[in-house]
Amino acid sequence: MELIALVLLVQGGGGLINNLTGGSKSWFALNYVEMPDALRVAAYAVMVLLGLVLVVRRFGWDWLKG
């Protein structure tokens, strides 16, 4: 479960930053799927949110707060 959350956070966060800064086609998975740019950015944001939900479900809010 932690591995899936980590992959979602890295792929989602990195892809989101990459697309918002006008980066090149890098190793982020959704950059290789044909879709409009706005949908791609939204999908990366959803990946980040899903990763955070998995982390919170596994470790709880107290762990996230520090």
UniProtKB/TrEMBL annotation:
The chain crosses the membrane at residues 39-56. Keywords: Membrane, Transmembrane, Transmembrane helix. It comes from the Bacteria. This is Uncharacterized protein. It comes from Lentzea sokolovensis. The lineage of its organism: Bacteria, Bacillati, Actinomycetota, Actinomycetes, Pseudonocardiales.
